[in-house]
Amino acid sequence: MNFQISRNLMIENQLRPNKISDPRIISIFQETEKENFLENDLHSLAYSDVDINLTDNRGYLKNLHIAQLIQHSNITKNDKVLHIGGLTGYVTLILSRLSKHVVVIEDDENLFQQLKENLSKFNLKNVELIKNDLKLGYKEYAPYDVIFIDCLLNKFSDEILEQLKLNNGRLVAIEKINSDL
Known about the structure:
Elements: H1 3-15, H2 23-31, E1 52-53, E2 59-60, H3 63-73, E3 80-84, H4 90-98, E4 101-106, H5 109-120, E5 127-131, E6 146-153, H6 158-161, E7 170-175
Parallel strand pairs: 3-4, 3-6, 4-5, 6-7
Antiparallel strand pairs: 1-2
């Protein structure tokens, strides 16, 4: 499988037609090898239009949905970002290339080890890896310009919201909706 061709097709058939137009985001998706953040048996799904499950209840969103969240977050080179739910590091790497500093938290021991191993290959100077409960955020480095949550949480705690910068702080997240309402 030629992953470079797959990345190009993902950009041309998933991102661009759905108004992902920020050249920084397009360039980073073009350059970032998602397959290197996945187990071998998942490589073929790296650029397909599907969510990728890594554990029973956690995984990567579709590439388009990741790109939409990133584009709507309006991250700048001066932003400090809290990334809740780092998984294996793919989205964290993208966020690190857009921002000044990223604090990434992960609470699953296996995923945390993969996150650490994967990101160590890039010698990133602007990323802090923290093993912590996802629902708590990480207040030690607060306030954050952006809190980026690309994993499903039933509810955001007040503790997470209090970690946002008071003026112009942005929460970017997907909230799980209870269909039993």
